[in-house]
Amino acid sequence: MTDTFLDVKGLTIDIPVGGGTLHAVRGIDFELKRGEVLCIVGESGSGKSLTSLALMGLLGRRIKVRAERMDFDGTALLDASPRQMRSLRGARMSMIFQEPMTSLNPAYTIGDQLMEAMLLHRDVSRAEARARAVDLLEKVGITAAASRLGQYPHQLSGGLRQRVMIAMALMCGPELIIADEPTTALDVTIQAQILRLLVDLVREMGMAMILITHDLGVVARVADKVAVMYAGELVETGLAADVFRAPMHPYTRGLLRCIPQPGKSRRGEPLGTIRGIVPSLVGEVSGCVFRTRCDEAVAACRGTIPQHWPGDGHAFRCVHASGARIAEQEGA
Amino acid sequence: MANTTVDPLLEEIIGPTPGQLLRKRVFGHQGLMIGAVVLVLITLVALFAPQLAPHDPYAQSLVARMKPPVFLGGTWEHPLGTDHLGRDYLSRLIYGARVSLMIGAIAAAISGVIGTAMGVAAGYFGGRVDAVVTFLINVRLAMPVVLVALAVVAILGGSLTVVIMVLGFLLWDRFAVVMRASTRQVREREYVAAARAIGASTPRLLLTEIMPNILNNLIVVVTLEMAHAILLEAALSFLGLGVQPPTPSWGLMVSEGKNMMLFEPWLVLIPGAVLFVMVLAINLMGDGLRDVTAPENRN
Amino acid sequence: MLDAAKTPPALELRNITKTYTVKQGLIGKRRPLTAVRDVSLKLEKGEVLGLVGESGCGKSTLAKILLGLEPPTSGEVLVDGQALGVQDRLALARRIQPIFQDPYSSLNPRKSIADIVSLPLRIHGIGDAASQQKAVRDMLDVVGLPPRVMNTFPSQMSGGQRQRVAIARALIMKPEIVICDEPTSALDVSVQSQILNLLGDLRAEFGLTYLFISHNLAVVEHLATRVAVMYLGRIVEDVSSDDLFDASAHPYTQALLQSVLTPEPGLGVPDTQLGMAYPNPIDPPSGCGFHPRCRHATNLCSAQAPRPVPHRDGHVECHLHDPETAMFGTD
Ligand SMILES: Nc1ncnc2c1ncn2[C@@H]1O[C@H](COP(=O)(O)OP(=O)(O)O)[C@@H](O)[C@H]1O
Ligand SMILES: Nc1ncnc2c1ncn2[C@@H]1O[C@H](COP(=O)(O)OP(=O)(O)O)[C@@H](O)[C@H]1O
Ligand SMILES: [Mg+2]
Ligand SMILES: [Mg+2]
């Protein structure tokens, strides 16, 4: 397929820790076409940030990243030299982080930080970079953009800072944007605005986006494709429409039940929960990692877990082949 | 790894207690361990000076003046030789450890109490208290320590007590600055608000909620100021305004040896070297403590 | 009805204003910041009042005033009809307890869980060491923690567990009122639902009254019987939860409702039409504080602050809904 421009197969991330190896990410596969939005969703600690940092080549040498394949538009990211990676980062792929305050440098003006990547990667004059910065700030909805260039990050509100981060990520016209929980630290009202902005920009500029979140509400509204991640594995993947219409994996269904929905979930009625927490991944990990928290766990969950394809491109890993049984019950 | 049956609840308590974690970090920190071992040795030497010293540090002997140490051809009678009055250099060095440690510890304790009280009060109460303390800190920082100490000692006359007092009352500035900043930080933590909402009194808040959480910074400053005081004492004694002869202080020994430095350099080098080792050990320990007591908050 | 008139509300705010003085920049001059502006609010016994609004609108300030942690600049707080100033601090602490947002900063990292949960008992001198230990064990059981966590430290726990500890500490003295200041905002959705369920169960079990603060209307709506919407230091709408969906009036309430992202694919991200004008409490807009972000704003809105008018069984502050000014607003 020529238009699959990000192709990841068997991505594995191991972290040596005191007393063993933390198998933080274990053999995950996904692919992305231009113009698509892929959402990776899962609780904190499931390895979402590590995955995105691995794609950007930003993990330290201590952390071992392996993959059968990790290609960005024909470039094998794992074999790329540090120089090649640097010329990709910020230019053709860029990242937006959760906490805009810590990812903006408090000592430099917004303008300097916006222009930096462009001056580094593209052969442009300062005036041109500046013009682009103003242009993009306006595009992300910041008024009086030219006068903002001289401001420092602390002079902006959280929502504005996140817009600046987005503008910064767009400076060089990247083909891929990785947004790691870009709205988790923001108010819901601001979250809606920022997500809308991101989706519009991705469509307009024909970029691809990987959006990382722990909120299925966000996923439902922005994703073309969903990858549900649990404890370092993708337990369910597919088109957003399919996954939300018929969630198959008990974890996906559990996450959906947790969300309070005004007007839908009855007030005062208990919400669904997933008991326990993400298990420790130090040492050998075998069988289904979700079995310790799963209400449908059986003895077979300790063995090899088969993968099922309930639909075109919709896949999940579970010993229960017909997760649909329970999904229908719940839909009723 | 023991990964047989996983009890989901058991797994939820993660990792060692802060105490265990601290122990592991302390014993895994080379600099801290080296500094601590050296300091413990020096302290033991100081404590058991009467038992360890081969001679009376004050006993003069005009026939045995300026004997060289063994490694320069001296005898084992005086392993580090003797000074210009024929006093055993090793014994004086051993007793000198007492003086240095005492000055360091007491001066750091006095300034620690003053500085911590001021800093914690300023950080916790803010407002006018903070303004006053900040002013006092600035006044103190504007005074050159050595010159003020010299002036006071010159007026009051040098003695161990005067030196300790002067240093104790001069070196509180770093305590105040650091404690003020850490208190301001900790005061904003929600557990302090929670304790207030429970009805805890202010002294209780300061003692049980604030102090334990700024203690790590305090310990680091204590080590730094101890080293600072020891060096200042040496400087004062060297200038003849510190501890008065015949008290064996390392600074004084350097001072007394300086006249003979060209002919008998070891008279200066030996006390200089132990001073250097001791200050280095204290600083290694301070740095190490700063590393290992970084807040337990993981993630 | 008669009875209700006799029992005073568990907690009442009368014309509370809180003004801080802030310094802008290094050499900036001191300026007043009004975090809470003439707010009156009642918390009836046994109800769950949700307080919702964007960060910086003054929710936590209000909570601190209720807890007696900050004195109001003006106005009074009444507990069971009695002025807060009159009540003894310790007596107040027995009746009102907080649960805070950040489970990583609300527990003292140097203390064991047993110490943290038993602190209220020790401060109030309730029982001896043995009975305190037993009370702690029972309370931990109530919030769903096994007794063996007693000797562990906060750093050994997950965010959800820490929040359970904070709840145990708040409830160990059997208070009547619990002020929950964004208790789930720092948690994963899966853990949030556990904590919300727990808070719901505890309310039933102990007959608690909650003030539940959040910036997420979906979370507030799930627990609350009544919702107060706060904007820039004012309660702009006060509505019963049953009316929230169909009959809430204020444009800001509607924007908050809209911005809740339910997991329904195909709907896309809603357009809240809130615009970019973020409110700055140091320099509040003239007239209605919300007018720069309001799609219905008229000249009147920037000129004159709306007054509270009754709406259903609550009130709303909006010119659109004030019969006297609505006619000017709609043309
Ligand atoms: N540098 C690191 N050293 C050790 N463990 C790490 C490191 N980075 C992440 N981890 C661990 O890897 C797991 C996955 O982390 P992360 O990718 O940040 O999760 P997520 O983004 O999904 O919340 C967690 O258990 C985390 O503690
Ligand atoms: N101690 C304080 N000093 C100065 N300003 C404060 C203080 N506490 C809160 N504020 C200001 O008051 C406003 C309301 O804050 P807060 O009550 O914390 O809002 P919320 O809880 O709704 O996010 C904010 O603008 C905040 O900056
Ligand atoms: Mg993350
Ligand atoms: Mg708040």
UniProtKB/TrEMBL annotation, chain A:
It is a peripheral membrane protein. The keyword Transport applies. GO terms for cellular component: plasma membrane. Keywords: ATP-binding, Cell membrane, Membrane, Nucleotide-binding, Transport. One of its GO terms (biological process) is transmembrane transport. Residues 6-256 form the ABC transporter domain. SUPFAM superfamilies: P-loop containing nucleoside triphosphate hydrolases. Its main location: membrane. Pfam families: ABC_tran, oligo_HPY. It is found in: Cell inner membrane. Transmembrane segments: none annotated. One of its GO terms (molecular function) is ATP binding. Belongs to the ABC transporter superfamily. This is Peptide ABC transporter ATP-binding protein. It comes from Seohaeicola zhoushanensis.
TrEMBL record, chain B:
It holds the Pfam family BPD_transp_1. GO terms for cellular component: plasma membrane. Keywords: Cell membrane, Membrane, Transmembrane, Transmembrane helix, Transport. It is found in: Cell membrane. It is a multi-pass membrane protein. PROSITE patterns: ABC_TM1. The chain crosses the membrane at residues 31-49, 99-125, 145-172, 214-243, 263-282. Residues 97-286 form the ABC transmembrane type-1 domain. GO terms for biological process: transmembrane transport. Belongs to the binding-protein-dependent transport system permease family. This is Peptide ABC transporter permease. The lineage of its organism: Bacteria, Pseudomonadati, Pseudomonadota, Alphaproteobacteria, Rhodobacterales.
From TrEMBL, chain C:
It holds the Pfam family oligo_HPY. GO terms for biological process: peptide transport; transmembrane transport. InterPro entries: AAA+_ATPase, ABC_transp_ATP-bind, ABC_transporter-like_ATP-bd, ABC_transporter-like_CS, Oligopep_ABC_C, P-loop_NTPase. One of its GO terms (cellular component) is plasma membrane. Keywords: ATP-binding, Nucleotide-binding, Transport. SUPFAM superfamilies: P-loop containing nucleoside triphosphate hydrolases. Residues 11-257 form the ABC transporter domain. GO terms for molecular function: ATP binding; ATP hydrolysis activity. It is found in: Cell inner membrane. Signal peptide: none annotated. CDD domains: ABC_NikE_OppD_transporters. The keyword ATP-binding applies. NCBIfam families: oligo_HPY (TIGR01727). Belongs to the ABC transporter superfamily. This is ABC transporter ATP-binding protein.
